[in-house]
Amino acid sequence: MRRRRVMSMLAGLALAAGSVFGAGQAGAATVTAAAGDEPPAEFGRDWHDPVTAAPPVEVPDTRSCQVTVAEVQFRDFTPFKGGYAPPKGCGDRWSKVVLRLEGKVAGRQYDRLGYLHIGGVEVLRTSTPQPSPDGITWSVEKDVTRYSDTLRREQPVEMLIGNVVNETYTGVIDVKAKLTFYATEGRTKPAAPPDRVLTLDGDSLTTPRNSERILAEVYATGSGGGCEEYWYLSVPEEAPYSCKTPGGPYREVQIKVDGQLAGIAAPFPTVWTGGWSNPFLWYVIPGPRAFDIKPIQYDLTPFAGRLNDGRPHRVEVSVVGVPEGQTGWSTPVNVLVWQDEGREVVTGALTGHQNGVPVNSTTYTAGSEHRLDTTGGHRFTVSGYVNTSHGRIRTTVDRTLANTSLHRWTEGENLDALKGKWTDDETVTTDGRGPARAVRAHRTYTMDGTTTLGAGDRLRTVLALGDRADTGVLRGGKRVSWSRFDDAYEGDATYTANVPRDQRHAVAATSERYRLQGSAGCYDRSLRTVQGTVTEDRLHC
Questions:
Q1: What global pTM score does this model have?
Q2: Would you list the DSSP string of 20-57?
Q3: Which of 52, 146, 460, 478 has its CA 20 to 30 A from that of 292?
């Protein structure tokens, strides 16, 4: 749990970074290890607490109220169940709501997956870092303002970070989750979150009859310790590799309404903090999204006319590429609804539904070094309209997915390498009164890594991960706002496998650079670590 003087400086920089992005100022600052914090020759019993380069949630300077929703120690797979009550003293139309999860764990433990539900709504899906023998602490912040509808009423709370504690795995996961509500004061106006936040009853959804915009969000994760945790490495049956699926590694998350395809998306290739057979990569800097899983969003507004008939409708999520009946994916669904205050019933219709032919091609080449080349993709376009109190609004969603990967490995998998790229391009166009509005998003996920097991059982992993998105809003064909996001991780770690922890002689150099630029300003922060010591923390703008 090594913090010392350098950590107080890092915290100050992180807070400053949030204001820099909000104000769009430019500047740079650097923090290096304080005297006495030079990196050791190899990992010992302790290292720096987990840290990421991501900015803190920007909050207004208004009165705030806090509510603790869970405080619990996880030793097994028993969910925590409690209750939530809205705060007193901050009203019920907040400018922002922020969830903060604080955790600590010591000893020996695997990375574990978890969730937090309030009123059945999934507000957080997360994973945990692996601890040092002396113990670590970490925290996760998330803007949950969009769930305000749920938070205005008393609700049941359920939280679980499934864990195993015994003579070998000694780490008890101790967490506290709290919500901070920021009041509306002076020039700080209320946020404009969805009017309703719904969950599925099994696979059934009933929306308010005056819904004019409907979004589904799916917290899709391949996990559970099986091969779907590493779905991007799976191979067809004919190839000699430890993880096999008939169609190879191509995955696609689909949502259907009453059995009809309603949306497609590329899953993010999350690497958890024990991933790629090398926990030393992740002890300080986790991979992108590992602590805060972003949900996939689907715009279901073209189906609003059908969903608004007052009857329950079947909504199902599936993962293409996973054999039927096989487990390994979690896909909880929230549905966000905006209502038309001027109408009791909003009618509409589906006007277009074009489902392109999915592509999934794998080519296996045998040899002393086995090789699998994969190409996959899909395009889907759907259109519909709703008749609102402010006129007829037409919505078209056009989404295109593509995936290419090259997987190489040797006998016994002593060499195992993957270079993969996934793109998810989406344009949502709304056309009614006034100029048409288009929101375009180009998402790119990359993975380039190699693990080798060499002489003396020295295991080395070199890995680069990328999470990128370019987004633009156009009105009448003219760009009115834009943003460019780039979260890049690099790591190189080596240790001796198949020996007790104190004999691993592990070394690792890791880094992250998190960049967010656009019409709202600039945030750019980079981190570097060596043997668990933060050696650089730099703000670039």
A1: 0.92
A2: HHHHT----EEEEPPTT-PPPSS--S--BPP--SPPPP
A3: 460
